Amino acid sequence: MENNEQFLDGNLVVDDEKVARQLLKEHNYKVSNGEVDSFVSLKGINKVYPNGVQAVFDFNLEINKNDFIVLVGPSGCGKSTTLRMVAGLEDISSGYLYIDKVLSNYLPSKSRDISMVFQSYALYPQMSVYDNIAFPLRIRKYDKKKYDYKCVSYKEVLKLLTEEDLVDSIFKSFDKTVNFGKPYQYIATKYNCLDLSAKTLLKAVLKKTKLQFLADEFKNFKDELVNEFEALLATRLEALQNKGNILNDEYVYLDKETNEEIHIKAKLTEQEIRNKVFEAATILDLGPYLDRLPKELSGGQMQRVALGRAIVRNAKVFLMDEPLSNLDAKLRVMMRSEIVRIHEQIGATTIYVTHDQTEAMTMATRIVVMSKGWVQQVGTPKEVYSKPNNLFVAKFIGSPAMNIFDGTYDNGYVTLEDGFKVNFGVKFARAHERFYTKKVEETTRLLELLDTDSEGEVTRTELSKIFSAKSYAKNEKEAKDIDVLTYSKKKKKKIFVKKAAKGFDLEETRNSLMEMLEQYKSALNGKHTIKLGIRPENIHVETAYNEKDATKAFEIEPSVVELLGGEYLIHATYNNVEMIAKVPATLDVKAHKPVNLVMSKSLIHLFDEISGERIDIDE
Asked: How many angstroms separate the CA atoms of 115 and 24, rounded?
């Protein structure tokens, strides 16, 4: 990162917008903030469109170097919008984005040092694979040391003249069955030197003799060449010194006052581009396809080219927006592991968007589950699967999904509609009391905020949380009606609007809160409805499960028994719910033949019906 003196202090407050814009421009739109510890930090990010629709609510996330973060959720949940805000393709309505501790809200996309892979690949059809990968390298300028390349080339030629197999390499460089490029490229690649050095050497050698006589005559003029290039190097250094230039041992120009290396902004040379493209092609196994056009490639190969174009830039952050959605199922599975392998090999920091929860569980170091613009949960795949925060996460993550049953809670017991009862004991009764006490306090506080007369006390975040809870309401129509909610001011009063049309005024909001408060109080003091969740693999055939945490048995009649590898998926209707159990295929289970099942009690999840949140017994 550049010296912090070139960055604008992030704590500076400027009232005049014109002055603020001028300051940003003077500092190249770079703002620093030393309080950020993570590599990428999103703090309170919101996205509100001009028509009042809010796509992202209060998004907070800390990303460390080398993390593979997957944003997952259904269509329209705000995951791609969030990614586009990080990329600079969408403005951030409020909140702060830091990339490598630099406030990036105001940085143009090209200055954020990010690479993005799109769903559509976005390859240039008229360019070869090589040129597609090389394109982002050709259009940018990079910070480079200021070398005197003549001195470097003379020094490298002297080193080349000491190589024992040099004559053999020169012959091979002209042999089209061995080298498909230009002769100097073969020499430069083999000995890891500049193209200029290889060109200078070949020109000097072929000036002394023709290629067919090289093996016989090289020894006679080799010492001559060494003397010539030593003289050229000495002459060049003397001429530079006479002009007042200072160079270090690597022939980098030094500042006359500070004696520090001088850096310049310059485009990469074709050799530097070639090396980066070949390196990416090796990682992605694209070597045989570099001369082809995109139309001559398969879907998986085009996806690898898009990845190659991203990784050659060696950007700080890689952003991927559903890059595998256009591939068939088999290729998608293969490319998942390929992307993870590349991520690990190049030490990348990746933010990946998908609606496929299997992709998220397979690839992520951490998952961010989103719904209706809200972050529902952040955690490792294991954490999100084993301890879902709420009903949405429980239903969305997992294949097959978690089974959810309606039950009644009463003093430590949960009873399903058919009378099946589970005793969760004193420990859960205490957790239940803690949960609903906290909910009563939260709802009371929000009512107090709502009743305050001071303008702006009720924030969009505070009130939207109330309605996000309604997405778990028992009445499905009510849940759909509130879909997307945003906060705005009309006719001198605060209202909620759905897609800038349907609204909830202040009185309706207050009534909703009071209704929720009464429900929480009722749940705290007596029996109430509750949701019971259990993963398919935690339901067992009674005769095959002898663990102490087994519940009492219940009988079902399978409608379908699906063989899936070494397991059966048992489909049945139980308590008016289409449930699935996953059991070993070695068991004698058949469709329409009744079977007794038990649940692992320690792995049952209980969810509040009002907010949809999981009641954590270990909290």
From this structure: 24
Among all chains, which residue has been given the structure tokens 């849940």?
A: 479
Give the residue among 320, 312, 319 at the shortest CA–CA distance from 346.
312
pLDDT, residue 60, reads: 92
DSSP secondary-structure letter at 573? E
In which element (H, E) is residue 583 found?
Answer: strand 577-584
Q: What is the C-alpha to C-alpha distance for residues 577 and 532, in angstroms, rounded to an integer?
A: 12
CA separation, residue 576 to residues 254, 320, 531, 559, 603 (Å): 80, 41, 14, 13, 22
How far is 399 from 385, CA to CA, in rounded Å? 10
- Are 84 and 320 in contact by the 8 Å Cβ rule? The answer is no
Distance CA 506, CA 508 (A): 6
**What string of DSSP letters covers 534-579?**
E-GGGEEEGGG---TTB---EEE--SEEEEETTEEEEEEEETTEEE
Do residues 275 and 130 touch, judged by C-beta distance below 8 A? Answer: no
pLDDT band at residue 459, thresholds of 50, 70 and 90? low
* Length of the chain measured in residues: 619
Q: How far apart are CA 483 and CA 503, in angstroms?
A: 12
Residue type, 197: S
- Cα(90)–Cα(71) distance, integer angstroms: 17
Backbone dihedral angles phi then psi of residue 265, each to the nearest 5 degrees = -95, 120
Q: Which helix (H) or strand (E) holds 327?
A: none
Nearest partner of 316 among 275, 350, 365, 266, judged by Cα:
350
Q: Are 555 and 581 in contact (CB under 8 A)?
A: no
Residue 117 in contact with residue 306, Cβ under 8 Å? yes
Classify the C-alpha dihedral 39-95-106-70 as positive or negative: positive
DSSP designation for 235: H
The model's confidence at residue 2, banded by pLDDT at 50, 70 and 90, is very low
Q: How far is Cα 191 from Cα 273, in angstroms, rounded to an integer?
A: 17
| Residue 169 and residue 190 in contact, taking contact as beta carbons nearer than 8 Å | yes
278 three-state secondary structure: helix
**What span, in angstroms and rounded, lies between the C-alpha atoms of 36 and 511?**
41
Q: Which two tokens stand for residue 212?
A: 């067919």
Per DSSP, the three-state class of 212 is helix
Q: 153: closest CA among 43, 37, 269?
A: 269
Arithmetic mean of pLDDT, 155-166: 95
Write out the two tokens for 290.
Answer: 């570099």
Q: What is the pLDDT of residue 464?
A: 56
- At 452, is the pLDDT very low, low, confident or very high (cuts 50, 70, 90)? low
Return d(Cα 274, Cα 115) in angstroms, integer: 19
Residue 601 sits at the vertex; the CA angle it makes with 596 and 607, to the nearest 5 degrees, is 110
Distance between alpha carbon 184 and the CA centroid of its chain, in Å?
A: 41
Question: Pick from 70, 65, 115, 61: which is nearest to 88 by CA?
Answer: 115
- Please report, as a single letter, which amino acid is at residue 112: R
> Read out DSSP for 357-410?
HHHHHHH-SEEEEEETTEEEEEE-HHHHHHS-SBHHHHHHSSSSPPEEEEEEEE
